[in-house]
Amino acid sequence: MATKVKKSKRELNEMLQGYAFIAPAILVLLVFSVISVLFAIYLSFNKVDLFTGKYTWNNFSNYLNIFKDPRSLIALKNTALFALFVVPLQTIISLVMAYVLASRDVKGKKAFRLIYFLPTLTSSSALTIIFMFLFNINGPINDFLIGLGLYQSPINFLQEPQYALKVIMAMNIWSTVPYFMTIYLASLVDLPHSLYEAAEIDGANAFEKLRFITIPYLRPITTYVILTGIIGTFQMFDQAYIFSNGSGGPNNSTLTLSLLIYQNAFGQMPTMGFAAALAVVLAIIIFIVSRIAEKLNGGK
């Protein structure tokens, strides 16, 4: 009996010591995550006057105003289009590049991987400025297109609504593909080579090996890549902010939900309650779309 009491006391002491070690992390999580999220939800049901600090309960008015505000609908459309084009393309390109590099004896393969991975190490702010220079009306891209004879006069990519968001899409794909390609490469290292040998004996070509062996084997990694891409594209803010100088222009063509949240929270006439409602809606959309993508990719 005494032995059991000593054992239970020792287990209790070990448990308390464990909680003591993780207490700082739990405190940080509570303050900066759980409490912040709950406070944002509370704000979304209030009209907030930042100058007086007064909170006025207004039920679901902020949420209803989202669907009445034309700029909110435009931001939702831009964000959805951005995710719809960027996520599939960056996933497919990174998978194909990883497959080629892993299955072919390419000279300078390690050097290529290192050079191609460099954009991932560069801040998105710097990349945005570089792409703004490249696609400037007097930039290298226009010079190249005119030199090929495709256009007679330069295109104002940065100021024409039909091109502005596409430039940001191209930049996002170019900067994220190397990271996802590296993840795929790391997973392909563990893929049993005997599967490819057996497929070759059965007469499978490169495309069939990719379709029936590589893609099914990499399904968990693909799920991670898709979910990461969805979260990143729906939260896209800094690139649109720098590209449009915070306005979402030209003609709201680069206005995203994250940028609209920032404008309403910290603009000249801040509406913090409306911004909080937008943030809650954005979080719900990300959760729903992520779950749908996970289910479609064979997740539980």
From TrEMBL:
Q: Does the keyword Kinase apply?
A: no
Q: Where is the ABC transmembrane type-1 domain?
A: 76-293
SUPFAM superfamilies the record matches? MetI-like
One GO cellular component term = plasma membrane
Query: Where does the protein end up?
Result: Cell membrane
Membrane spanning residue stretches: 21-45, 80-102, 114-135, 163-186, 217-237, 272-293
Keyword Cell membrane set for record: yes
Some GO term, biological process aspect, for this entry: which one? peptide transport
Which Gene3D superfamilies has this protein been placed in?
MetI-like
UniProt keyword annotations, A-Z: Cell membrane, Membrane, Transmembrane, Transmembrane helix, Transport
- Membrane topology, as annotated: Multi-pass membrane protein
As for family, the record states:
Belongs to the binding-protein-dependent transport system permease family.
Its recorded name reads ABC transporter permease
Q: What is the lineage of its organism?
A: Bacteria, Bacillati, Bacillota, Bacilli, Lactobacillales
